[in-house]
Amino acid sequence: MFEQNKKIGVFDSGVGGLSVLKQFLKYLPFEKYIYLGDTARVPYGNRSPETIKRYAKECTDFLVSKDVKLIVVACHTVSSVALDVVEQNSNVPVVGMIKPATKSALLLSKNKKIGVIGTRATINSNAYQDALIKSSEKGDVEVFARDCPLFVPLVEEGFINHPATKLIAREYLSDFPNFNIDTLILGCTHYPLLSKVISEILPDVELIDSGEQAAIYALRLLAEKNLLVGEKDVISQKPDVEFYLTDYTSNFSDIAQTFLGFKTENVSFVSLSN
Predict the structure, then answer these.
(1) The whole model's pTM is what?
(2) Active-site option among 15, 21, 59, 75
(3) Which of 12, 13, 197, 267 has the fewest C-beta atoms under 10 angstroms from its C-beta?
(4) Domains of the chain by range and CATH?
(5) 158 neighbors 258 (Cβ within 8 angstroms)
(6) 148 is catalytic
């Protein structure tokens, strides 16, 4: 099998990674994908680092067994805590959420005051904070981080524009105007769906969608390695995605429709743990 025609593997702790997949379908529409959602063990955000690393290895092993050409870690928690585990257990390039987003934020920010929001595990890991400071050329960046744990269940309940969501968002983001940030990294896969609400509260702040930046980064990476599928090899422009879940969730189809904008097909179930 030609390397270019192999699929791109994307995994997340649940369904939030579908927002990342959406960006990949936008920027790399001719590629074929395998999406793995570890719905049996979601969320990862409140797990110990040791457990997250074990889960990350099992997800990686599954995608490697599918002979993918690239692994996308669409989970910010894994990207923060266990990206090295994925890289060590993968025989193909790996793209996480943090590096592409931090590079974009540093390029866009004019006053070098950058905010980050994410799950508790992501924020407590200091992965984004450390990456921003390390990547800053002059070391003059100021980072303001805040965990927003209620955003995930609100999105999955479909409360995208609900008054309760707006109320909670105002509470979470209330300090950011005092910090004078001009850029905010959405450090969780669910958060881009709340971009409108967040922008209403922080109208002059540039929002960084980590999934979008990861897709752009992957496009460049695959092009450099001559691994992009050729348009001549594409039969249909309909999204070509195999979906794997570790547990049946009755609302997966509805959530996927919300994230992707189309109905999911080819959904299979798999057990990862030994």
Answers:
(1) 0.91
(2) 75
(3) 267
(4) 3-96+212-269 (3.40.50.1860), 98-210 (3.40.50.1860)
(5) yes
(6) no
